[in-house]
Structure formats: structure tokens, C-alpha cells
Amino acid sequence: MHYVLLGGAIAAELIATSLMKATDGFTRLWPTLAVLAGYVISFVLLAQAVKGIEVGVAYAIWSAVGTAAIVAIGAVFLGEPLTTVKVAGIALIIAGVVMLNLNGSGAH
Known about the structure:
Small_drug/metabolite_transptr, Small_multidrug_res, single chain, EmrE-like, membrane, mainly alpha
């Protein structure tokens, strides 16, 4: 169940971050409220998830999946370039999360 909450936290963060440009620097009311609500929901769900997942592991997964997904969303929907350096960076982030999870499960 804790990983379901973490998944919800990630989804809320992705929605909020994806809407960030629509706020026009937080000058547009409704997109701004949607972004703020998304981040509040994300942190509430993350706080619930860490009741059953080590905080370092949960945060690493939350931030890594969020980062990788936002890069993909930027490339697919916002016309942002997907460079070799970005792909390599995402691979390193994923490798780091895998290492944290292996350590968190007792493997050394």
C-alpha cells in the first residue's frame, strides 16, 4: 500500500510540474492553484508513503521517477530536446535509485 501512495505522490507531482509553464510565472490564477494543489497532494501522499518505506528510498524514487518522467513529458509534449547528455543523466539517476533500493533491502 505504501508504494501505491508513493505512486500517487509521483503522479500528483508530475501533473503539478507539467502545469508549471501554464501559470505564466504564477500570474494566472487557475493554473497556479492547480500547481499548488498538485504539490500539496504530492507531499501529503509522500508523507504517508514514508510511514512504510525508508524516507531516503522513497524520496529517491519520488524524485528520480519524477525527473525522468518530466524529461520525457518535456520532449514529447513541450518540444524540448532529448539529448544524449539528458539520457545519460537519467540513466545515472535510475542507477542511483536501484543502488539505494538494493541497500535498503539488506543486500550489500
